Amino acid sequence: QVQLVESGGGLVQPGGSLRLCVASGLELRLYPMSWFRQVPGAERELVARISSSGATTNYADSVKGRFTISRDNRKNSVTLQMNSLKPEDTALYFCSLYIGHQYWGQGTQVTVST
After folding, report:
1. Cβ(97)–Cβ(2) under 8 Å?
2. What DSSP designation does 30 have?
3. Shortest CA distance to 113 belongs to which of 98, 91, 96?
């Protein structure tokens, strides 16, 4: 069974930073990985994606230049570094991968507020 566990969310002031991480017993290095976010009443939004090798990354326009997705395949880790956070970044953030089916973690809450 695929299990993804996100961590690193929290409350931060505008302009601050957070680093989200995902843990899994699965060999994440084999798969492209994505981070999504969702606010109540809205659809889940793709934030960033990284190829299995880490050579290719893609970002939503709203986070370009502020967020960085990366991976360390030796450590089986994928992270999302979020800088210059804005109140509109407030959401539940999910890590996801596709293996014949879209798998999701339970999410980690990010709240950007004074």
Report:
1. yes
2. G
3. 91
Pairing of strands 108-112, 10-12: parallel
- Higher model confidence: residue 38 or residue 100? 38
Residue 53: CB atoms within 10 Å: 10
Burial of 57 (C-beta count, 10 Å sphere; 0-12/13-18/19+): middle
Q: Which two three-digit tokens encode residue 53?
A: 């090798």
- Amino acid identity of residue 93, one-letter, is Y
Instruction: Identify which of 17, 49, 23 has the alpha carbon closest to the alpha carbon of residue 36.
Output: 49
Residues 52-63 pLDDT 10s: 999 999 999 999
Contact 17, 108 (CB under 8 A): no
DSSP letters along 72-105, please? ETTTTEEEEEE-S--GGG-EEEEEEEESSSEEE-
Phi, psi of 12, deg, nearest 5: -140, 150
